[in-house]
Structure formats: C-alpha cells, structure tokens
Design brief:
0% strand; 283 residues; Farnesyl Diphosphate Synthase; mainly alpha; globular
C-alpha cells in the first residue's frame, strides 16, 4: 500500500467516527436478536451482512455526506482538530463515500419489501439531514426528529427476519425519542461554532440549559413509552434523564460528558441485547 493510500485509509477510518460505529450497528444487533425465532436464524448470512454493513460502510457514507456539506461550518469547530477530521476535497475519498452508500443497495434482492422501505428511510434521512434542499440539521426540532435515523437500521434488521406485524410500534417510538435526545445532547458542544457559522439548531435555539432540559424531557418520554413494552428496559433508560439533570446541575462539562456517552450507550445496548439472547436461547 502506498503512503497516499495509507493516508486515505487512515483518514476514512477517522471520518467514519469509530467511537460511534455501534450507534448504527448496535440497533442492528437488537433488531436481529428480537426478530429471530431461533439461534440458527440469528446467525443467517443476511444477519452477518447487515451487521457488517452498518458497522463500517454505512458510517463512512453517513458521516462522509455530513462532513462534505458541513465543510464550511467545521472550519470553526474545535473538535475537528483531534477527535474528528475536517472533510478533504479528494476525489478518491468522495468515491469511497458514494460507494459505501451504493453498497447497501446490494441488500435489495435479499430483503422483504417492508425492510427495503425502512432502508430507504435510512438513506433519505442520512442524506437530507445534511444535504440541501432540506438540510434538516439547520432547522430546530427537525434536526432532533430526523436523528431517529440511528434506530432505523434496527428496524431494517428486525424486518429482515420477522414480519411487520410483529414489530412493536411503541419500541420504535421509544427508541426514536431516545435518539432525539442523543442528537440534541451531542449538539450542545457545537452551540458556539454553529452560532458563529449562522447555523440554527435545537441546541442553539434553546441554549445549553434549555437544550439539556429538552434532552431530559424526551429521554423521560422514551422511558415512559418503553414502560408499555418492557418495564425493565424503561427503568434502564431512566439513566439518561438522570444524567441530563446531573450535567445541568453539576460542574461536569457537556463537552466532556459527550465523549463518554458511547460507553454508556454500548453498555445499555449490550444489556438489552443479552436479555434478548437469553430469551432466544433459553426461552
């Protein structure tokens, strides 16, 4: 591999936000575990393929589109200095981003119609969250709502193995509310650079305190909705509004707390997944 190729590979790796890979791949695992009727079905080729696609290629596509259309904004964003990267106007990088999106179309012959509709929703939100003419990320509350795209891979995975009639709608609503809170919490550290760039988001509109209050409310609503699906999962989700309150009323910096959320989310997701695995394997 040439030095240019190594540099591009390293750049694409960082562009894909490895800290956040499980934000797409985790819901896939949850969807597969709760849709599968047997361990054999859980380990089917389509299950592996969905997990691997949403682990890396889908992240390259999602964040590549985001970084391309945010290039001007990110010039003023300090977190692009170390933990993330600024978009590089490189035709090879652009080709990999586009190819990563096209790769997902390989699922078309293997997924039922309902799963393909969910996959189309993922693509639509992944693109138009950042891209004009909608550019949903620049409209307060639409930016938060559209962040439900992170749980859509779980819906795709569930419908790959089970019929639409078995998909619990309240679980989708509760998970969507959770994703809305995550989006606004992650936007709080960007209030200053977004404001400097003239970008209006839910976080810039509400300010830090108001945004944390909003996060607490939608996370609490998520737990309430999940109480009708699984009281134990609802109790687990109460950690999120509690943390929003903790950040709001202590000296903990939102910027610092934000980088610990991947660990929290992975832990919560693992507990939900293992609970499903236990039921699948041991009944």
């Amino acid at each position: 591999m040439t030095s240019n190729a190594r540099d591009r590979a390293a750049y694409l790796f960082k562009l894909s936000r490895p800290r956040f890979w499980f934000y797409l791949a985790g819901p896939v695992l949850v969807g597969l575990v709760y849709a599968a009727s047997s361990p054999r079905e859980l380990l089917s080729p389509v299950s592996y393929a969905l997990f691997l696609y949403f682990l890396l290629p889908a992240n390259i596509f999602l964040y590549g589109v985001n970084d391309y259309f945010d290039a001007d904004i990110d010039a003023e964003n300090p977190k692009k200095e170390d933990k993330e990267v600024r978009y590089t106007d490189d035709s090879a990088v652009a080709a990999v981003v586009v190819a990563s999106g096209v790769l997902g179309l390989g699922f078309v012959p293997f997924l039922p119609a309902e799963a393909l509709v969910a996959l189309a929703v993922f693509y639509f939100l992944s693109v138009f969250y950042s891209a004009p003419p909608l550019r949903l990320k620049t409209t307060p509350f639409a930016d938060s709502f559209s962040n439900g795209l992170y749980i859509v891979p779980g819906v795709v995975a569930f419908l790959a193995l089970a019929p639409l009639s078995s998909l619990p709608p309240l679980a989708v609503v509760g998970a969507w509310l959770w994703a809305m809170g995550m989006h606004t919490f992650s936007a709080v550290p960007d209030i200053q650079p977004d404001s400097a760039a003239g970008i209006e988001t839910t976080a810039t509109l509400l300010g830090e305190e108001g945004a944390l209050g909003y996060c607490g409310l939608v996370w609490a609503a998520s737990a309430v909705v999940f109480s009708f699906v699984s009281p134990s999962f609802a109790a687990l989700l109460l950690v999120y509004p509690a943390l929003a309150l903790g950040v709001a009323y202590t000296d903990v910096s939102v910027d610092r707390a934000y980088w610990y959320f991947p660990l929290l989310n992975t832990g919560v997701g693992a507990l939900v997944t293992f609970a499903g695995l236990w039921e699948l394997v041991f009944g």
